[in-house]
Structure formats: C-alpha cells, structure tokens
TrEMBL record:
Renumbered residue ranges of the record's region Disordered: 1-39
Name of the encoding gene: ppk1
Domain Polyphosphate kinase N-terminal: 50-155
The EC number(s) this enzyme carries: 2.7.4.1
Organism classification: Bacteria, Pseudomonadati, Pseudomonadota, Gammaproteobacteria, Oceanospirillales
Name of the molecule in the record: Polyphosphate kinase
Every Polyphosphate kinase C-terminal domain range: 376-539, 547-718
Organism listed in the record: Franzmannia qiaohouensis
A Pfam family: PP_kinase
Binding site for Mg(2+): R419, R449
Role played: Catalyzes the reversible transfer of the terminal phosphate of ATP to form a long-chain polyphosphate (polyP).
GO molecular function, one term: polyphosphate kinase activity
Keyword Ribosomal protein: no
Amino acid sequence: MEEPRGLSNSPQSPPHAETETPPLRVNRTRTGVRAKTDPSALNLDDPSLYLNRELSHLQFNIRVLEQALDDSHPLLNRLMFLLIFSSNLDEFFEIRVAGLKHQLALGNDSTGADGMLPRQVLGEISRTAHEQVDRQYRLLNEVLIPALEEQHLRFRRRDQWTPAQQAWVRDYFDDEIMPVISPIGLDPSHPFPRLVNKSLNFIVELEGKDAFGREGGLAILPAPRSLPRLIALPASCCADGYSEYVFLSSMIHAHAHEVFPGMQVRGCYQFRLTRNADLSVDPEAVSDLASALRGELLARRYGSGVRLEVADNCPEALANFLLKQFELEQSDLYRVQGPVNLTRMMAVLADVERPELRYRPFTPGLPKTLKKHDSLFEAIKDGDILLHHPFHAFSPVEDLLAEAARDPAVLAIKQTLYRTGAESQIVSALVEAARGGKEVTVVIELRARFDEADNLALASRLQEAGAIVIYGVMAYKTHAKLMHIVRRERGELRYYAHLGTGNYHSGTAKLYTDYSLMTAHEVLCEDVHKVFQQLSGMGKARHIEHLLHAPFTLHEQMVAMIDREAAHAAAGRRAHLIIKCNSLTEPKLIRALYRASHAGVECDLIIRGMCCLRPGVPGISDNIRVRSIIGRFLEHTRVFYFHNDASPEVWASSADFMERNMFHRVETCFPILDRKLAARVRKDLETYLVDNCQSWLLDSDGGYTKRELGDTAPISAQETLLYAYASKT
C-alpha cells in the first residue's frame, strides 16, 4: 500500500527535523519542545481533567446513531446503524445504568477520576438519552421510513392497511397469535406478573364484566415470544413491486378486543421494561462456576427494572402505574413514537434482497506468502504472517487449526476462547483433534457477557470429545486471544502460535477490524506456552521474554513506554506515539499521556468508544489529539506505536486501556517483531490519522465533531485498507 503523503517516515528513515510541517499531519503540534515547567508540579488528579466514563460511552452511541443520517452509507445500512443504536442503548441501560442505580441503592457515593457523583451521572444520562431516543424515532419516522418507501420497502401502520391486508392480518391473528397469547387480568388473585427483560407487553384498559362477573379494570397482555416482531405480508397483499411489513404490535392492537370477549377495550398500549442484566458471581462462594452461571442466567431475565419504554399515547395514569410497579422514577420513563422494541426490525435486513441498498460485497484478501505453500506450517516457518481482518480473510486461522487437527505430527493444541459460538469451525477442529487423540486444552471464558449460554454449550461439546476444558481464573476473565500448537519435526518439537486482537469468531471477523499474527518465532511461542501453563497450572509464570501480560506486566510496561517517549521529548528528541484501542479510561495511563503531552510528545489517540482523557487543555494535553473512527466496520484493533528515538516499536494487544483489562483480566500484548510487518501496521495507523470521511474529533468539553473535508480530497481509512488488502478479483 502506498504511504500517504506528508506522514511521518518509515521506521528505517531518519526522524523529521523540527522545522518540518507535514502538509497532511492532523496534529500539527511541534515536537521535541522541552517542557517549561516541572511535570511534578502538575496536578494530574484534578477531576476537571477527566471525562465521565458513562457519558463518554453514551457519546459513542450517539456517533453510531449519526451514521443513520450519513447518506454516504447505503440506505439499508443507515437503518442498520439506527437499530444498532437501540441495541447498544439496551446494553448500556442493562449494565452501566443498572450499575449506577445499584451503587445508589447501596448508599455508595464514591466517584471516579472525574469526580461526578452517581446521581449526577444518572441525571445527565437521562437528559441525553431522552434527547437522543426522541431524535432516533424522528429520524426513523421522518427520514428513513419515507426513504425506504421510495425504494418500495413499506412498513404498514394499522390505519394504512388495505382491505386485503386487513383480512390477511385477521387470519394471521386467529391462526398464529390467538392460540399462544395469554392475557393476565389484574386483581387480588392475579397480581402484576413478572415480565421478562426487554419483552414486548401491552397494558389494556377494560370496561364491562368478564365471564365470572368481575368488573373490568386492567390487564397485561405479553406478546408471544415465539412469534416474530416484524412480519412480511404476502405478495398478493402488497402493491405492485413493493415489499410490505406489519408489526406484531399492530396486529395485537387491532385485535385486542378478541382476547377479552364480552368486554370493551378502552385502550391498549405497548410497553417494554429493561432490567439489570449484569451477572454477579461471588468467587468466594462458588465451587462450580458453570453451575453458578446457569443459575445466574435465569436470574438475568428478572433483574431489577432500570428503564420503562411506553407508547407515546399511553395515558399518564397508566404510565405512572407501571412506574410504580417497577419501582422506577419519572426520569426512567421513555415515550416513543413507534415500536418499543426497534432492535427487532433487524429482521428486515435479513429478509430484503436488495444489494443496491447495501454496502458492496468484497472478497477478503490473502497475503502472498500463503499462496506459495500447501501447508500453513511451512508458510509460517518462512516468516511471521500478519492478517488484518476483515480486509484479510479469517480462513487462514481456521485452516491452521484444521490442518493441526488432521496432522499426525501435531501432538498438542492449546487455545483460549472468549466469543466463538458452539458450532464454529474453530470448535469443530478442536473436537476433531481431541477425538483423534491429540492433547487438546481449551481455556473458555464462561463469563463473556451475553455469550455465557453459548460458552457453556461449547464447553460441554469439547468435554464430550475428550478435550481438557478450563474455565480460566475465577477472579479474572481470560480475555487473551491465543493458540499454541506443538508439532514434531525431524525428531524435535517445534512450536507454532497465533495471537490476535479479536475473538476466534468467523462472523465478527467479517465485521470487526482486528489483527492476527501467526508465528513460529521460538521465543514468542515459548512465551505463549508459559501463559497457557500458568492458566492451567495456576503457578507463577516463568520469565516471559517478549509478551506483556495482564494483570502482571502490561500496565506497568505501557506506562513505562509512554514515559520513555516523554523522556525523549524532554531531552529535545523527536517523540511520537499512536495508541489505537476501543476505550481509554484508566487514570494512571491517562496521567502518563498527560505527562507525555506536557513534555512535548506528539500523541495521536484513535479511540473508538469511551475516552476519559480530556484533550486540548493548555499546558497539559494540547499535544494530544483524539479521534474516533465510525464506519462500515467496527474498529476493534488494539495496536500501539512508539517512535522511541527512531527505534520504533509496534505492539498489538487483546487489551484496551481500561482498568478491567489491565488489572482484572488475563490479557496479552505482543510485539510485531518483523520490521516490514511493523512498518505496515504503522502505515495502517497513519491512514486512520488522515481519515476525513469517518473521523470524529474529541473536543475538550467531551463532545465530538465530525471532521470536515474542506478543500482536501476525501480519504476513508476503511475504504483505503479495503482497496489495499482485499482481493482485487
């Protein structure tokens, strides 16, 4: 790939002179300027230097919603972004808001580095979330639905049904809905029911007497969970050339009176309750993690309420009644103009076959070295192989494991699994290897949030095949992405390893950007072997040569490398670092970056999601530029570049710059030792720095501003990398 003009030079070149001003450099701060004040005099604990984590998380979700307004994305993908915003917001309330509410309930007023009290944070979340949810529905109703209708994709509301559609809906209700729907009248013998987290329900006002002579009042009507929330109308009921859909909620509204024969339905209003869905397993009280998690998964469906969504026409008295039932406040109530469960509209993306309304397809590429060899082991022995997904195919990772499972020279395979799916090719290869008599050890993290059930299933499948399954370390999630293969070659044992920044999941490898390193480097493979020994044997790891390893050395060494860059700048040498990860929240790392900026280090941070560092503070962070790239692919790579006085280092990691990754998870960070591959990664990073199509710049007040094109040519980092690495066929 051609290096963009005006960027810093390759690792083998001499550093820029201080007087150079590269025309496309995003951060134009001069480097190598000695600090005018003693950095020890800075008060880096000042809460005003830190942005609140939860509010920064919410800002990321807003940037996702913004993509629905961006007509550079195809229409169906704009709808996808709007629905992803709903899904993200659900999880935000289930985990982050639920955590804050739990903290308040315990009377815990402790704060983070930003100094905001939990109640203050909840108030700001409520204000921002209400604004954005209202904006989301306006965008859906006023922009996307009309645009979809222009493309002959129509969502029919009840008052828009034709006579033929009314007849079809009536038949569907009688045949599919009525047999499985269960109304619940509210009276002393029928108390308010426990409703499943995020389920679609209706509160119904009734008048008259039922079959037992009881006066009408209120009833709850849960929508059958077995039925789709969005139903495609048959072609015979649609206008010529149109694909038309109706919502299950509309069908139930239209025929609610049939569920209560002999009574009058005065009102029927949809609502949805979001509950606390965080799992809590006490390591001191658990003897069997798998059994404990199975119990917690059931409890997740009925956690305490955190948010109530109701139809915008729901009377205030009924909304207040529901709030009281769920012990929620007015600030927890969200009135919406449309379905309360928008995420279920994802079904239309799978149903509609309109390639012109989606991103153009592409074929992931393969490095040339893989095409020269029939065996992946031979290819890896020739030199390290670095894949950049999804621009490069994920299949070499699967193929390496499949070849190892069949190869009689392979003696043992060890692997970590965090999110992969019980039916994946990765798991199938491990099963085949175990059944074939190889020593297969798999470290499965059962507590990967919302994938717990899948991980329990794949653990059972592997155990049945004869693999040794380990659930990691009780108090630390195993988040490292590692594979280790032992092979006998010419009478000696040789190691091969795979290290990655993302999960062993072929589906997300098509949607998330990640790096995969396949290597036979003797010392690096030995390091991986030592990590596995520590995970399975629980003993202290012997000296690890190249890998950085959380919770042991990663945080300390990251701070040291940032401080090393600051020392270079303080001595008048050029200093530059690039940090690309998903989130930056850990205070000690933030303080190290502030010290580096103060010393004159040029700090380019590419942080997709949460960022608690405040850029642009005079004398402290004015050498720091933070950008977030939001586009077709979810940016997921964790990769770090340090100029290091013209002896550059490039590292890739499974860890973000967060407290949980540094101190409460098993993570690895690995160097890119091959100089050509390291230079390639640096060019990739520099491509992100000049992106002016999908780049959002963090302001010092915590808001984000979309970078404007101005007079420059458009540069999309993701499109550039797609062109550079994907197959040209």
